[in-house]
Records
---
Amino acid sequence: EFQFPKGMTLTEHGQVFVCDSGNHRIQVFDMLDGFKFVRKFGLKGTEEAQFTSPLDVAINCASEVLVSDSCHRIQVFDLEGTFLRSFGTKGRKEGQFDHPTNMAVNDENALFVCDQSNHRVQVLDASTGAPLHSWRASKKKKAEGEEEPAGDGDAGEDGDKQTDWVGVGSPAGIAVNTHGVVVVSDYRNNALYSF
């Protein structure tokens, strides 16, 4: 039974890990056995091995399960659901998050995270969480004499309207292929980007 299922991932052995966001847990099913229930892990909370609305799940190259949640962190588990470690806190610095929504891991064990409220995609080591790179957005600067465009832009921290964005505005979905191409969906700009 689910309540607001969100992100999911598959293992090479046919297990499906699903973020059961409203129930604050991960559920695991066997795709090769008619989606038979295998296990669940996690409880509501902010401590280790607890979740506050898990958002996405990914598997790294060491077959560890990475889960992002609304506590602005990524927790790492083994395939049985045993907590191993976590990384990330709320913030804007490298390795910190503000609403990490979707994730993808490439063949080189790089973790790509849609750091949505920080308006960027972060690239981290999928085992250690060490920051490797990021793509971020910035407000488009007005040319001299240019008027501020009319619109419903969100007010930023400094009160400026954030209507014109250059780069990734609000990354929502992410995918990586075997050739290293990263594709990001951006719901603020109604666009897809590839890197």
Note: Residues 151 and 170 are 17 Å apart (CA to CA).
---
Amino acid sequence: MNEAMRLGLQKSTSEKSSIKMFPSYVTRTRNGTETGNYLALDLGGTNYRVLAVTLEGLTHATLLRWTKGFSASGVEGHNVAELLQVALDQLGLNVKCVAVVNDTIGTLASCALENPKCAVGLIAGTGTKVAYIEDASKVELMTGVKEPEVVINTEYGAFGQKGELNCWRTQFDKCMDAESLHPGKQLYEKMVSGIYLGELVRHILVYLVEQNILFRGKLPER
């Protein structure tokens, strides 16, 4: 995984890596002096949350592909900030989309406000992902950065798409992946994340029943 992350940071090798290491263009965490009224929209794997906040740039993000069962059309490959802004304008709302932030980066920023030594944001829930603070000189995917550091959204849930996990993936992992909305994608995430664990257990139980190890070899009707 470390090698895949290293390759993902380099412009010449990024396409070869299953971990894309997306620069977030966030070059510093909050310091508590930010001011203004904000409406936060959180589209997660399980819940959709809306929160109005008052605080006493970052306006471009392209969705490469949906994961974790999302399948809304007309979004992949488009700037989600622009799509959201168009929808807000159509509703006549005086709201401007000022930032698109991955949840790991939001987690990192929130924790860093309380503990300045915090350098990693980790999500382990419906899905799994990690963001961390990287030396900007090591990030070839973005240019013109004057700050010494930048937050990287690793999207390490995609690890394994180049065959790195083949020796660890079981027959149950492969069956569940084949039946998913996006076969062959997000393989590491499918092995460890909450949204997939129940289905993995179901495949294991069905196998044990078929081998006459559980329930006297009889599958229930449902």
Note: The longest helix spans residues 194-210.
---
Amino acid sequence: MSPQPLFVAATTSYAVNCALGASVAAGVVDTRRFRWVHHALYIATCTLAGAAAASAVLPALRPAGPAAAAAARHAALALAPAAVPLVVIPRVSARTARHPLVALTAAPFLVAGLMLSRR
């Protein structure tokens, strides 16, 4: 099985969550009645990113062939640093300027993992 769909799903979930957060911050969308959507997207992003990173080591998800396995390993290693901002973000108040800055620090690692998973 190719791990690429997991990288695509993790990156997509992250992008949708960032778009929702930016829309709320800009006042375009009001999520007071359904704030749980932002939290559900965060949980989905963390779960999918973890599964994508684990795809390099779990036998059921690891692709067949040494070249494909090496590519999956490189993608997982590129994605791994995204865990730090994903762990920190719940501890940063959403009402501060630090919240989006911390959230955006995961972007380069998610994109790098996605690009490397496409090889």
Note: The chain has six helices and no strands.
